[in-house]
Write a structure and sequence with these properties.
Layout: E1 2-5, H1 13-25, E2 29-32, H2 40-47, E3 52-55, H3 62-66, E4 73-76, H4 86-91, E5 95-97, H5 104-120, H6 122-130, E6 147-151, H7 155-166, E7 170-174, H8 180-184, E8 188-189, H9 192-198, E9 201-204, H10 218-221, E10 229-232, H11 241-249, E11 255-258, E12 279-281, H12 290-308
Parallel strand pairs: 1-2, 1-3, 3-4, 4-5, 6-7, 6-9, 7-8, 9-10, 10-11, 11-12
Helix pairs in contact: 1-12, 5-7
Length: 317
């Protein structure tokens, strides 16, 4: 079979060579590319005659999938698959396997880290001291004793909840299903509107799909308290980001920590959150750490080996 890694996945060539050695030993052809591309014709060229392709978060649209008659499996070095032409994969019976779990700790740590900045004015304090100021008026607030609402208590949401619990917070959650592990930790499940209205900190961890797009609408955003810290390290289109910016600018929300947007950075200069008050913005980096990139690479290659052995793992479509 021909197997192609269509873009870099955050590890060295030496790691790629080590992980792919088994393909060559089994008699398969392996090709890897060290640049990303969103050019349709280039993606078609890279995918030509491939039985298996491996990608990360580079868009892989239906037009590209339609262009190949050989593709049987896509191994995604990412948790979400909303950047893939899933409908066309279903038509052509192409299996999609993801790398769920590789970034649980990494995303959770950034969500908590951003919350600490929002409450303790870390970025603001850095600017103050560099400009000759003092600590007057920037002491901030603690996580301990506050109510944290987790929206989407899957693996990443649960890891985030555990970290907040370690700080001494009370954790409540909204999720379609309930787990005994969460209950044993003392996490209380509540309806979405209650989680939004009762929480001092709201951390979003839903996947993006047709049912969650614009899930946190303008009406839902207005349910949060005026001093709530809102954190989004999930997916940008789950939130009405224009309404979020408006709520911040009119003091209907305390602070927003946002790692994901309606598009991938760089953002256009008129993007509303770039001009909103009380924001901490990062360029979709929650999933990236030295440790998570190594875990991700191993999972995405292991998915291919499992498929080749007739025992596919992490199948999502």
């Amino acid at each position: 079979m021909k197997i192609s890694l269509l873009e870099p996945i955050g590890v060295s060539k030496e790691v790629i060579d080590e992980l792919s050695a088994g393909f060559l030993e089994q008699g398969h052809e392996f090709v890897s590319y060290d640049t990303k591309t969103t050019d349709m014709e280039e993606l078609k060229k890279r995918s030509a005659d491939c039985d298996i392709v491996m990608i990360a978060n580079n868009p892989y649209p239906e037009e590209v999938i339609k262009s190949t008659d050989t593709l049987k499996m896509i191994s995604v070095a990412f948790t979400g698959i909303d950047h893939i032409g899933v409908a066309e994969c279903e038509k052509k019976d192409i299996m999609i396997c993801n790398a769920a779990g590789y970034s649980n700790q990494t995303v959770a740590e950034l969500a908590v880290g951003m919350t600490i900045d929002a409450l303790r004015n870390v970025v603001k304090a850095d600017s103050v001291v560099r400009n000759g100021g003092t600590s007057a008026g920037i002491g901030g607030r603690e996580i301990c004793g506050r109510t944290v609402g987790i929206i989407g208590l899957g693996r990443i949401g649960l890891m985030t909840a555990k970290l907040f619990l370690a700080f001494g917070a009370k954790v409540i959650a909204y999720n379609r299903s309930q787990s005994e592990e969460a209950k044993q930790l003392g996490i209380e499940y509540k309806p979405l509107d209650q989680v939004l209205s009762e929480s001092d900190i709201v951390s979003l961890h839903l996947p993006l799909n047709d049912s969650t797009r614009n899930f946190l609408s303008k009406d839902k955003i207005t349910l949060m308290k005026p001093d709530t810290v809102f954190v989004n390290c999930a997916r940008g289109p789950i939130v009405d980001n224009a309404a979020l910016a408006d709520a911040l600018n009119h003091d209907r929300l305390g602070f927003a920590c946002v790692d994901v947007f309606d598009m991938e950075p760089p953002l256009p200069t008129d993007y509303p959150l770039l001009h909103a008050k009380n924001t901490l913005l990062t360029p979709h980096q929650a999933f990236i750490s030295e440790e998570s990139m190594k875990r991700r690479a191993k999972i995405v290659f292991d998915n291919v080996y499992a498929y080749l052995a007739g025992k596919p793992e992490n199948v999502c479509k």
